[in-house]
Amino acid sequence: MGKRKIRGVAAFALDKDLNVVLLDMKLVGLKFSRTALISKYPKYEAYEKALRDAEALIETNVKGLAHVDGICYFRSKPLICRLYYSPKGSYKRVKALILLSFSRRLLNVVIDKLRGNGWRQIMLFAVEETKTSSKTTRF
Predict the structure, then answer these.
(1) Which of 18, 85, 9, 114 is nearest to 52 (CA)?
(2) Least enclosed by CB within 10 Å: which of 30, 85, 95, 105?
(3) pTM of the model
């Protein structure tokens, strides 16, 4: 099985308790896998570069924050999720979230639902695949 291509990237700025964020995600239909950590799924580790690239774009929002990567599902379709939280104390405040999707349409549905719950979107990218054509001429 080949590596699936990322089709969309979204980021949200939050300042909510971890339990509230997880509840909001559950209310819109996002479900975390039983072993939600991405390190349990070797095939998803290849997307670390995409997460780092997205993080670089929102660096001012996530500087100095700890993060945890996971896989969640919306209508049985996987999304890669990175939650940024304040590492100080036992009280976890989620400050930002990045979602990577393998489907642009799916990501748009999830974004609309999260924004409906009061989440503030700070980034959205649709990743387009460019095809190069090779032309041959015969003499």
Answers:
(1) 9
(2) 105
(3) 0.82
